[in-house]
Amino acid sequence: xADEQVRMARMRRWLEAVCVEVGVDAAVLDDTTxxxxxxxxxxxHGPSRPGAPLTAxxxxxxxxxxxxxxxxxxxxxxxxxxxxxxxxxxARRPGP
Length: 96
What we know:
The protein is mostly helical. The protein has one domain. The chain has four helices and no strands. It has helices at residues 2-22, 26-44, 51-65, 72-92. Helix 2 packs antiparallel against helix 3 (51-65). The longest helix is centred in the first third of the chain and has 21 residues, at 2-22. The protein is globular, with a radius of gyration of 14 Å. The termini are far apart. The relative contact order is 0.12.
């Protein structure tokens, strides 16, 4: 349990630094971290392990590309909607 907490704290510090550097409101990440990690897990254990991080990237890109002028809550909602879309796609794919 302690190892997991250490890893998650390290991840959080890293992602906060990335948010600052790339100009993303960390509140979006705060609101969607669990869902994004679940998406990456589902894609990695389903359709494509190497495609998992790129899938998360595409979800973020889709949410951000139409979000000019949106606040963090609206952007987080867009991320969740795109995650749900991809999760439906994962569920429709036939097994290995």
